[in-house]
Please model this.
Amino acid sequence: MNILVQGAGALGGYFGGRILEAGYDVSFFVREKRAASLTKEGLKITSPEGMFESKNVMVFTRLEEIKNIDLVILAVKGYHLDQVIPQIQAIVEQTDAFVLPLLNGVEHLEILQQAIGEEKVLGGFASIIATLNEQGHIVHSSGSSAIKFGALHNDQIEVCKQLEAMNQHVKTKILREEAILKHMWKKYIFITAFSGITSAMQLPAGFIANTEASFATAGNVIYEMSMLAEKEGIVLTEQEVEGMVNRLRGFSGEATSSMHQDMRKGLPIEVEHLHGGALRMAAKHGVTVPVIETLYGILKPYENGRP
Model:
């Protein structure tokens, strides 16, 4: 299977690098600046799951260069989705590839399905805490990483089998899930709480566990998001919801969210994609989510980087 990773930041670079490391055919479609960095520095991963470095990385910057692709792993930030839609449309038209988006949230599924067809968009998400250092190398700081994916259409069964077969060869987890929409929602619920509270506090995860008021705020986001999930037909048990709340206490003191890391660097953040998406869903169902709305108001000025 020939895989194209669109976006080679910390997320796309890490998982694309791990698949490349295992000997699979992987290329990257990136902007000129990132292409120059990868050409000069190569792809380098520092990780508890093992170090990896390659100076021989296939990089594309022009759509017409892309041919013979079976799967596109879409690994861009939510705020870049609108601008990459025409690119994804062109790639799928040229190659007939399937697309596995690793974006946070759930709104992007319908947007992509409308752009390229329901049969082409797999469900999926990534679990990792990683960032790029000043040299553009990937620094993975969480103890493990995973891609979880699943079919949303019968035409995707075969490509899912091929992806699933990679799991035993890569130094990460590539896990197939039958109820992928539920798993996506559980990620969306948790990251909306975790990224929201760490970014609003502008402090790492240790302060969630040590500050009852902050823990309660993050927990209330989980309760509000779980209510929205149920409105969307995703039913979670009480034990599943409480498990997510209790997980907020389980991080090491200095661990933090990708959104908080981006804020520290003065970069754009996914507040519109995550918290804004929740507000749009609440409006659709005629319900209120006051804690999410408050975090959204606090974080919105940082949407395009440090004000």
